[in-house]
C-alpha cells in the first residue's frame, strides 16, 4: 500500500488545475506562520497554505498537543463537563473538537476502505492488532468489550 499524501505534498485549493495532484513540483516551502507552522505556496495557482490545512487543528487558537491531550482524556473516559472545568475550555469547544476529530477519522477510514480496498473486518483487525501490541509493550491498559 502506498503512503497517504501529507499537507505540503499537493495543493488543497479545489479551483487549482493541480489540486490534489502529488509529485507535480508545484508546491514549495514559503516561510512560516507567526505560530511557527510551515507555510507552502502552489506555483500553479499562487495560493498559500499552512502545514495544518485540512486537519482538525486548522484555524484553532489552542495548540495541537492540548487538543490531542483533551481528546485522549475523553477516550479514556473523562467527561466533557469535567474537562471543561479542569482545562478551562467551554464544553461546546471540546464537543466541537470531538466532532471534528470524528469526521476526520471517518474521512480517513473511507479512504482506506475505498482506495486501498480494505474491508471493515480488516480495519477492525488492524485496530485490534495495534491494541494488542500496546498491551504487550505495557503502554496500553487491558480493554474489555
Please name the defining characteristics of this protein.
10% strand; 3-stranded antiparallel beta sheet; 145 residues; 4 helices; mainly alpha; single chain; Transposase-like protein; Transposase_27_IS1
Low-confidence segments, ≥5 residues, pLDDT <50? 139-145
Biggest sheet, spatial arrangement of strands: 1-2-3
Derived from helix and strand composition plus strand pairing, the structural class reads mainly alpha
For the record, give the distance between the C-alpha atoms at the N and C termini, rounded to a whole number.
30 Å
Note the run of SSEs as H and E. Answer: EEEHHHH
Total number of strands? 3
Helix content: 40-55%
Per the principal axes of the C-alpha atoms, what is the gross shape?
flat
In short:
The protein has 145 residues and is mainly α. It has 4 helices and 3 strands.
Structural features, described:
The protein is mainly alpha-helical and 145 residues long. It is 43% helix and 10% strand. A 3-stranded antiparallel sheet has the order 1-2-3, with no helix packed on it. Strand 2 and strand 3 form a beta hairpin. The relative contact order is 0.08.
Amino acid at each position: 500500500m502506498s503512503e497517504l499524501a501529507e499537507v505540503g505534498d499537493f495543493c488543497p485549493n479545489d479551483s487549482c488545475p493541480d489540486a490534489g495532484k502529488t509529485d507535480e513540483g508545484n508546491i514549495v516551502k514559503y516561510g512560516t506562520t507567526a505560530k511557527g507552522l510551515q507555510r507552502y505556496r502552489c506555483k500553479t495557482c499562487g495560493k498559500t497554505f499552512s502545514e495544518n490545512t485540512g486537519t482538525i487543528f486548522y484555524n484553532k487558537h489552542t495548540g495541537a498537543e492540548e487538543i490531542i491531550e483533551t481528546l485522549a482524556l475523553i477516550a479514556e473516559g473523562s467527561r466533557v463537563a469535567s474537562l471543561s472545568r479542569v482545562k478551562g475550555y467551554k464544553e461546546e469547544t471540546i464537543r466541537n473538537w470531538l466532532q471534528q476529530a470524528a469526521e476526520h477519522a471517518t474521512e480517513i477510514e473511507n479512504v482506506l476502505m475505498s482506495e486501498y480496498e480494505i474491508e471493515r473486518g480488516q480495519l477492525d483487525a488492524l485496530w485490534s492488532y495495534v491494541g494488542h501490541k500496546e498491551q504487550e509493550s505495557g503502554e496500553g491498559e487491558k480493554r474489555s468489550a
